[in-house]
């Protein structure tokens, strides 16, 4: 027990709350830097403050250390910065579930060697008195890397974001017909704006910050009071979805564009349509107004510059190979930057219409661009899930910001130029430090979603399969990547390791399976026969046969020595998404997007029974070591336990809030782990059906496996990370 906890325990609840609230400030004001440092590295204080006053109050305590930094060493200052960064990165999780504090401190800080951090983590480990999943490596985005904070709350793709002129609030627009107003300092959602009947594609905030205008697929624009969230006006006139909107510097007019070929200029006070601008030959997708308000630029298959007073087209800019998705005008009005489906950005001289330079580096569509207030840098957003910061004078890429797990749809830079906010298909917004913009360190190796993971029978190695077309072999104790298996030319959807650990089989989107030598990484043979993507594969206990499943709605049994196809199993009416083979090798169970599971006789290929109960796709299935029960995971957000002899449903496990993608059973048959699109891994007591532990990640979990020791867990997520965790607080799972 720390001295702080001992002292705190002697106080009344009222005095305890007062101490938690005021002590850090008192130490800062009295320039007691050493004591403040001790307090802010004491896990007992961190946990108590979070529990009593919330995550933002805790984050702000670390800002106080700046007042006392004359008494702190450089190392102490760095330590506090790292702890604060870890808490701030996890704020969106801790606001919903404070019990994840220990897991997230370990997941973000375990790789740092500072004595105070090591001591704090050990203190946290001792504090945890219930089962939990302890990260063995920094499997979450580390403090000091990637974004400053993640904002969650939208239930669908976030399409746009705008920051208020004072920088204190931001507004995001979503495909689920709503907008949200955020406090940019605390990350708190202030209010939700409802009224649109279609996805909201764009939002702009007036120069005075008091109103905002949104553009929607419902063919309308709406003007909002940003302080109350009240809808003031609806602007109608477009004949198709409205893609973008910009407000003039004087706040009196706005310009919108649509899927059609026109733009419209509006009087923002009356809501009256002033002009219609025609000239584009295809859908208009972007618009920006120059700082002087006299001209505007729109993007379509080309760009056009307009006189905003007369509505006259001044010039056309051509050069992109595909449609323009976004355009931004520099603060001096002399240059503009466009983003395109051709994966590039172009910088233009707005007076002459001359293309000055092309910015290349993104590997997919560039969806948005914003220029910093000083005009010297710009930030682009892309479908490749990254943002890039560019030097606008030279066209050089300065850094890449990674962390989103879905396409990045929009970006806005704060008025002070120090931070930026991005909006993504992954339903989140992220706040970035534009000056440091530290790139995410890639410990994980994979550059795209990890779709499957398997652990070798000896528990010493694991193999992951990814959308980046590769497999990787890992040391499970250290998390170090041992080798990469290349040869697939498309996404690798699944992997299974033979009982002797010497070979593995992978399944790919392009209809094939490959058998690998796990010691050398050599490809031994390729199995062909499916007519569509192969989704899952399992190897029989004797190692002589394997079963694969596919989008072609069938299963195939293979001879693993020769690569021969032995049998084809038919009966499912949807893609077959998962398969497991019983310990005796005589039966197998498959799961399908027809919402059912089927039990098969592996010797004859005959369907024995169908298990019905799930109300959505069955994503995965696992069979208990005794062969008597099986567990299925489903898009209906549940897992179900089945009696394999009778096909009877025994229990339904609930707790996940999104698709459950994978499930694995511990060797003792008493616990199971599930992986879900809700960003969590959950450990279940199979006897009671109760959840006994949970781990929240930075991204959607796609797969999981339990080692033979029953406590080592390996999981893969959509960002490309492979997580190595240990189940603490339970007896040996063997």
Q: Give the percentage of residues in beta strands.
A: 35-45%
Shape, principal axes of CA atoms: globular
The neighbouring-strand order within the major sheet is 1-56-55-54
Distance between the termini: 33 Å
In helices, the fraction of residues equals: 10-25%
Tell me the structural class: mainly beta
* Strand runs, count: 56
Report the sheet with the most strands, covering strand number, pairing sense and barrel closure. Answer: 4 strands, antiparallel
Gyration radius, rounded:
28 Å
pLDDT averaged over residues: 94
Low-confidence stretches: 439-443
Number of helices: 9
Description:
- It is a single chain.
- By secondary structure, this protein is mainly beta.
- 13% of the residues lie in helices and 43% in strands.
- It is built from 9 helices and 56 strands.
- Strands 1-56-55-54 form a 4-stranded antiparallel β-sheet. A 4-stranded antiparallel β-sheet has the order 2-29-28-27, with no helix packed on it.
- Helix 4 (43-53) packs across helix 5 (55-63), helix 5 (55-63) packs antiparallel against helix 6 and helix 6 crosses helix 8.
- It is globular.
